[in-house]
What we know:
The chain is mostly helical. It has one domain. It has helices at residues 2-26, 30-36, 62-68, 70-109, 115-169, 193-208; strands at residues 57-61, 173-177. The protein has a two-stranded parallel sheet with strand order 1-2. α1 (2-26) runs antiparallel to α4, α1 packs parallel to α5 (115-169) and α3 packs parallel to α6 (193-208). The radius of gyration is 26 Å and the shape is rod-shaped. The protein starts with a helix and ends with a helix.
Amino acid sequence: MKKFFVILIPCIIGVVGAIGVYFLFFGKGKEVKETVKLVDTISYETSSIPSVTDGSIVYVELDSLTANYLMTEDLMAQLEEKMKKLDADFTNKQKVFQANVRDFENKANKRLETQSKLAEMQQQLAQDEQNLLQLRDRYAMEMEEERGVMQRKILQSIMDYLKEYNKEKGYKYILGNAFDAKILYADPSLDVTASVLDGLNAKYKAENKK
């Protein structure tokens, strides 16, 4: 019966490797937070609003703005909840597969099934392995797409609000400054992040009755 194990062992190793990669993406605790967060949450003072001349070019610190936007917190919570559900589903299917592998090994060692039946079981286990790999990839792609949609929703919401915000302010440009932005230097006196964040969160609270 050893010939069955020669073929099956690589299958088992393949799934274990796949599961390892999976939990790098769907792991609980720090790993989940590192995967879904847009930026590190930083405490940002919202009390001071810079005095600038009408028609000036101003900017917002985009990382700080998105990190402290209430919409970001809500969407991240929804995303993490979905990730937990996918994690639980994958874990359950993984346990079923492992139980089937143990059952196969037991029957093969004790010769409780015919060679043709063991060959059939082995083929099914190989198919189950492929199904797990495909499920892992599908879940990873699904969560990556969800994360992209979340980011676009947040950015679109900010851009929509800035149109309203600027009706009163009348700035010529409101630039977005970030770590990888093309703005190499910005005078702090032109930073209107606090003002925008106050208005953005106030609007979000009103729309969501928080």
